Amino acid sequence: METAQFTLWGSQCQQMIAHCIATSGILTPYLEHGQILFKGSSTVSCLSKLVTGDTLRICGRWTKNGMKGALHKCKGAHFMLYRQGKAQKVDDCLEQTMKGLGPETLFITGANALDAFGHAALLIGSPSGGGYGICMPYLYTEGIQTLILSSVLKLIPGDLTQIMGHVSMRRCGFSYGMAYSLAPIPGEIITEIEAIQFFAKVQAQIFAKGGFFGVQDSTAIQIQGERDQVERVLTLVEYIKTLPEEPPVDHDSLDECNFPCSECGSHHSCGYSGRQNIFHKIGGKE
C-alpha cells in the first residue's frame, strides 16, 4: 500500500474531474446506446471537449467585479446533445429536445453549491430559471440520469433545502452584478474524490483547502492504493499541471457584461446598471 499527497487549484480540479470521468467507463452505455445532454459550465465544458471535441458556452460567472453574465449573445452551445458520435446545439429547441429524452439519456451539469447532506444547487439569474428551468421538470419525471460534476470548493455550510427558500433574486435589493436564486439539481454528485476513485483503484481523501499567492482556491488530496494505481493518478496529475490555467470554454462567452449591455434588463438589483433599491454609492458614486 502506497500513499501520495498532491494539491490542485480551481481549474485543475475541474480538469481532474473531467479527465477521470472521460476515461472511467461511466459514459460508455450512453455513448453506445443512448445520448448525453451536456449543460454548459466550466467543468462540464472540460468534459465535453474531451468527449465531443467541442467546448460549451458559459452564462453566469464570478469575477473580481461580482456575479456577472456574458457581454454578448454568442453562438456557442450552452446545451449540447451528443448522440451516435454527433454533437448538436439544442439551445433553441430545448423544450422539444427534452420531450424526446428518457432513461437512455445522461444529463451532465455542474453545480454552484453543495452541502454536507448530498444536495446540489444551481444559481439562477434568468426569469423562470432560463434553460435549466426548462430541463428541471423532465429531470424529475422522465427517468433521465443526471451527473453533477462539481469540485468540493462548492461545499457550503448549512442545508441547501433550507437555504434555497431564502435566496431570491426578486427579494434582493442590491448586488454587484446579477442577483441570483437557487434551484435544486437531482442526481449523482461527482467531486474530485468520486472521480479519482472511478479512475483508479485508490482511496482518496480531501484533507485541506486553502492556498496562497494566486492559488487560494487549492485542494489538498491524499490517495492510497497499490503502487501502480497511485502512480496512475499521479501521472494524470502531472499531465493536468501542464494544461492552460483557463478551462476550455467557448471563447466568445468569456467577456463579462458591463453597463450598458443587452442583458441589463433581466439583471435584478445590479448596482452597476443602477437597478438597485439600496446602497447607491457603488464605485464611489452617489
Number of strands: 14
Number of domains: 1
Main sheet: strand order = 6-5-2-7-10-12
- Overall pLDDT score: 94
The number of helices is 8
Task: Give the overall shape, derived from the CA principal axes.
Answer: globular
Computed Rg: 19 Å
Q: What about the largest sheet?
A: 6 strands, mixed
Percent strand:
15-25%
Description:
This protein is α+β, with helices and mostly antiparallel strands and 286 residues long. It has one domain (2-274). Helix content is 26%, strand content 24%. It is built from eight helices and 14 strands. It has helices at 10-22, 28-33, 42-52, 94-99, 130-141, 160-163, 192-199, 227-240; strands at 2-8, 35-39, 61-63, 66-68, 79-83, 86-89, 105-109, 113-114, 120-124, 145-149, 181-184, 188-190, 202-210, 218-225. Strands 6-5-2-7-10-12 form a six-stranded mixed sheet, sandwiched between helices. Strands 1-14-13 form a three-stranded antiparallel sheet. A hairpin with a 5-residue loop joins strand 8 and strand 9 (120-124). Helix 1 (10-22) runs parallel beside helix 3 (42-52) and helix 1 runs parallel beside helix 7. The protein is globular and about 60 Å long.
List the helices and strands and how they pair.
Blueprint: E1 2-8, H1 10-22, H2 28-33, E2 35-39, H3 42-52, E3 61-63, E4 66-68, E5 79-83, E6 86-89, H4 94-99, E7 105-109, E8 113-114, E9 120-124, H5 130-141, E10 145-149, H6 160-163, E11 181-184, E12 188-190, H7 192-199, E13 202-210, E14 218-225, H8 227-240
Parallel strand pairs: 2-7, 7-10, 10-12
Antiparallel strand pairs: 1-14, 2-5, 3-4, 5-6, 8-9, 9-11, 13-14
Helix pairs in contact: 1-3, 1-7
